[in-house]
Design brief:
Length: 416
């Protein structure tokens, strides 16, 4: 049984987070627009009501003034309203608790000049709406009437509304976050199931294929030893090798994905990895009539998994051997470059056409399939190498000149 939990979490958790973030942002935008509109409409309504109120009381006072030439300020000053009347040389007003008649002089003056004046005054805690109007009845009875009403109740109501909207909105967003997370998980479930099934299939299929392949190869090899001239037997061996490396690569991709989440925190000496790997390749390169050299510092430490780093180098060396004709040279170098460890594998082989360079790290990509068919690869090596390097927070790149050779460069953060 091959659990794909590691890769699954790496793939699906960010998608789930993104989906949830979208739910919450859309809801937040809707709430902000609706909340602002609601607040503004309510505010407008409340303050309009206040304005209508003061004007109504002023109209009553005016009526009294016309009818009787006098205004009963105490009678009119009911509820939240206070009425003051000023006639030439005479001020009639409601005396407040401090013994004074409070009057907004600026508003009076404005009304005297313009006929009427409506304004807000006072500061937080004592806000008022002041309406002043100038009335004149023949022959020359002039009066200024001022009606004042506190707007504190309205402002208090608006503060409560704002607090309610903010608390309700924040609560709504938290609920949307939780619900969105749950919904995103639910909607991703079928994709997860399909992904797991496919992952397990690749993994199991690779496993099941390995044993029969090994048996076929052993038998064919036996046949080949018995009958060295048998071309078919030789073909079976080489084709089985090709198939085996495909199966190995598939298994590696599947298994490596599983291990993806595993932390890579062992100190590894890259110089030692290079020396050991190069040593193990000497026979192969000698068989292919290639010269294999290397240059390393005495020590070059990186953080990671020794086996995976060795696998990267094996893939690069395998390719160098495969794509370099007899008589060529392969050079492996490890060196430090500032905060990085740099590993290069250079060969004097057939090179890679420029248009193929960007794709060589793609899965199953093979530059010029016809040319490569005899070389046994399946186009997974570099994809695996890149996956392994990325997992070590590194980068892999290639430069190549067709017909002259290729250089693969791996850069990894150095452990100092
Ligand atoms: P393969 O199994 O085909 O070698 P890889 O992923 O390792 O798959 O490489 C992809 C392709 O890149 C190869 O098919 C080959 O065309 C090209 N390539 C890789 N390494 C070299 C090299 N050292 N020299 C020339 N071509 C190379």
């Amino acid at each position: 049984m091959h659990s794909a939990a590691g890769i699954e979490d790496r793939l699906f958790t960010p998608a789930r987070i993104r989906l949830t973030a979208w739910y919450v942002s859309v809801l937040a935008a809707v709430l902000i627009v609706l909340g602002t509109a609601l607040y503004l409409v309510v505010r407008e309504q409340l303050l309009n009501g206040v304005d209508n109120g003061v004007k109504l009381v002023a109209a009553k006072a005016t009526e009294e003034w016309f009818a009787t030439g006098n205004v009963d300020v105490t009678g009119l000053s009911t509820g939240p309203y206070t009425v003051n009347v000023m006639t030439p040389g005479h001020l009639v007003g409601v005396t407040s608790t401090d013994g004074y008649i409070h009057l907004n002089r600026a508003s009076m003056q404005a009304a005297d000049m313009n006929g009427s004046d409506l304004r807000s005054s006072g500061s937080s805690g004592d806000r008022q709406r002041v309406y002043s109007v100038k009335v004149s009845a023949p022959p020359n009875q002039v009066a200024l009437i001022q009606v004042t009403r506190s707007t504190e109740p309205e402002h208090e109501a608006l503060s409560k509304l704002l607090a309610g909207l903010l608390i309700g909105g924040a609560g709504g967003l938290v609920l949307a976050g939780v619900g969105g997370w749950w919904l995103a998980g639910k909607s991703l479930r079928p994709v997860r199931v399909a992904f797991n099934r496919q992952h397990a299939f690749v993994s199991d299929a690779s496993h099941e294929l390995r044993t029969p392949l090994a048996v076929i190869r052993a038998n064919a090899e036996f046949l080949q030893q018995e009958q060295p001239e048998n071309v078919e037997a030789r073909d079976i061996v080489s084709e089985t090798d090709r198939l085996s490396s495909l199966v190995d690569a598939l298994l590696a991709v599947a298994r490596d994905d599983d291990r993806g989440a595993k932390a890579l925190h062992m100190r590894v000496d890259l110089a030692e990895v290079v020396e050991a790997t190069v040593a193990s390749f000497q026979t192969v390169t000698a068989d292919h009539e290639l010269e294999l050299t290397h240059a390393t510092p005495s020590e070059l430490m990186v953080m990671g998994d020794r086996e995976q780093l060795r696998q990267v180098l094996v893939i690069l060396l395998d390719n160098a051997v495969r794509y370099t004709p007899a008589g060529g040279r392969i050079h492996v170098q490890a060196r430090e470059d500032g905060k990085e460890a740099v590993l290069t594998v250079h060969d004097t082989g057939i090179g890679i056409p420029e248009e193929a360079l960007p794709q060589v790290f793609e899965r199953f990509y093979r530059a010029d399939d016809a040319r490569n068919r005899q070389s046994g690869g399946v186009g997974l090596g570099l994809a695996i190498a890149r996956e392994l390097v990325t997992r070590h927070s590194g980068r892999i790149s290639v430069t190549s000149t067709e017909g002259a050779g290729s250089t693969f460069t791996v850069r990894l953060p150095r452990d100092t």
